[in-house]
Amino acid sequence: MLEGIFVEGLIYAIMALGVFFTFRILDFPDLTVDGSFPMGAVIMATSLTGGMHPLTGLLLAFCGGVLAGFVTAAIHNRLKVPHLLAGILTMTMLYSVNIRIMGNRANLPLLRVDTIITHVTAATQGLIPADWASLIFFVLVILAIKFALDVFFHTDMGLVFGALGNNEQMVKVQGVNPATLKLIGVGLSNGLVALSGAFAAQYQGFADVNLGQGIVVSGLASVMLGEFIIKSNRIGLLTLRVILGAILFKAIMYLGRYYGYYINMTPNDLKLIAGVLIIASLAVTNYRRIRGKAGTAA
Amino acid sequence: MIRLQNLNCTFHAGTPNAKTVIRDLNLTVGAGEFVTIIGSNGAGKTTLFNLISGNLLPTSGKVFINGEDVTDHPEYKRAITIGRIFQDPLAGTASNMTLEDNMMITYKKGFKWPVISLNRKIRTYFKSQLVNLKMGLESRMKENINTLSGGQRQALTLLMMVLSNPDIALLDEHTAALDPSNAAIVMDLTTRFISEHRLTTMMITHNMNHAIAYGSRLLMMDAGEIVIDVSGAEKAKLTVPKLLEMFSNVRRQAFENDEVLLSAG
């Protein structure tokens, strides 16, 4: 079970990194996530059942997510629609698109196909137990993504992303079009989310069009939990704490699922727990801020 | 350098709330000129800057920069040649990023590619430039901008603007939010940077003494029009009482003109 928490936490951490990018860096609360996560899963499942290599499927899923993000950003940029509404529009449309991708069905099992996980366990057979093999594999995947993001945020483009969420006027004064940046940023973020969905489908052994319901909330909860673990402004630690937050979030969800019956909780209550977690995080942050201000005034 | 042709700007045009903020304005600012602008609240000074920088589009009229008609160019495109500093010291920098990151963002104008340019060579260069501010910021390059005071932030914004190598500087009361000693420091840096980099400058100020002491040309705006435009030797002889007298003369004339019109009707 313990490996399960970590593997699921690591898979969802990829999604949480995407949510962190839009919510925290771009200051663009992007709800496309609820549609792009199942989109990644759906593209992956369709590619695998179509006989493609898992790596091709992952690449296609990533590209699909990027396109979904482009749509949201374009609606927001071109039609001056508020970001929340733009995200909801794309998310809603993606529901139909996802069913189309799977050939007019709502779910697709991955029972007798080779996934990236079966590839990994086959390659390491006899060396390490299958559970540990997939755990190590996902640790490597998340480290690679984290490292790539850290480097990206040190580039000239990455730095401007930091400024965009902070001070949009400054970005304009520097001769950069904020609309272009939002397009790239929301695209990349949803690419990560779709990648996460693609891994999740392979881990769970199926893709379902409802996989994404409330996923943005769990991503945001992971980001906020992470902010309690580490206080910093360095990008390396920011991405690290998102990953830790995602694992912690999954652990809390596991506790709820396996021991929740002691307090009459069912798995159906987990979404409520996720929401309450966010509200509690906000309340604590708010309380600290008020107390912090009172402290400096005294 | 900057040429404004029959510029008009009306807010809420076509509604009962219509308000004309800039009225038939014509202005040519030559390369290297340092123009100070004064005028009461609501005279249209900041709107003028918004029209030049592209933050606002005129109701009619044209804006030329370096001889090119830029009336339809969006703000981010015009920004390549224009550096702008606002009254709010927080407006020119990104608070929760480090000093060197801020400098890197503003170092080059235009689209940024995903390449890492912030290396040891550029850090050394930034450090050597920060020494010019004489604020000890050169040892704080890894610190967050929000640890800096308002004066330090405004001085840094000024330095960053100069390093991005614009042709034109638009300064919108950039010392008004600072305490007197910091304002004096920032003003000193301003004149030094302007002459070192030969910037064409327009500076809005509320301080009549500043408007007279600095620059090669003085404009006074009132109700969306330029009512006083002095330069050269005439400006050198200007004093605050003289300026006030000129202003009241202009207003009396306008008032008498209105009276004539009304009685004729």
Can you describe this structure in just a few lines?
The complex is a heterodimer of chains A (about 300) and B (about 260). Chain A is an all-alpha fold and about 300 residues long.
Descriptive notes:
The complex is a heterodimer of chains A (about 300) and B (about 260). Chain A is an all-alpha fold. Chain A has one domain. Chain A has helices at about 1-25, 35-50, 55-80, 85-100, 115-125, 130-150, 155-165, 170-175, 180-205, 215-230, 235-260, 270-295, and strands at about 105-110, 205-210. In chain A, strands 1-2 form a two-stranded antiparallel ribbon. Chain B has about 260 residues and is an alpha/beta fold. In chain B, a hairpin with a 2-residue loop joins strand 4 and strand 5. In chain B, helix 5 packs parallel to helix 6. The longest helix of chain B is centred in the last third of the chain and has 25 residues, at about 240-265. Chain B is globular. The interface of A and B includes residues 152 and 158 of A.
**Any idea what the shape of chain A is?**
globular
Number of domains of chain B: 1
Into which percent range does the helicity of residues of chain B fall? Answer: 25-40%
**Main sheet strand line-up of chain A:** 1-2
Report the CATH C-level class of chain B.
Alpha Beta
Low-confidence stretches of chain A: none
Structural class of chain B: alpha/beta
What overall form of chain B do the CA principal axes indicate? Answer: globular
Mind summarizing the main beta sheet of chain A? 2 strands, antiparallel
- Main structural class of chain A: mainly alpha
CATH architect. name of chain B: 3-Layer(aba) Sandwich
Can you count the beta strands of chain A?
2
What do we call the CATH topology of chain B? Rossmann fold
Strand order of the largest sheet of chain B: 6-7-8-3-9-10
H/E series of chain A: HHHHEHHHHHEHHH
The chain pair with the largest interface is: A-B, 25 and 35 residues
Strand content of chain A: under 5%
Radius of gyration of chain B from CA coordinates: 20 Å
N-to-C CA distance of chain A: 50 Å
Distance between the termini of chain B: 43 Å
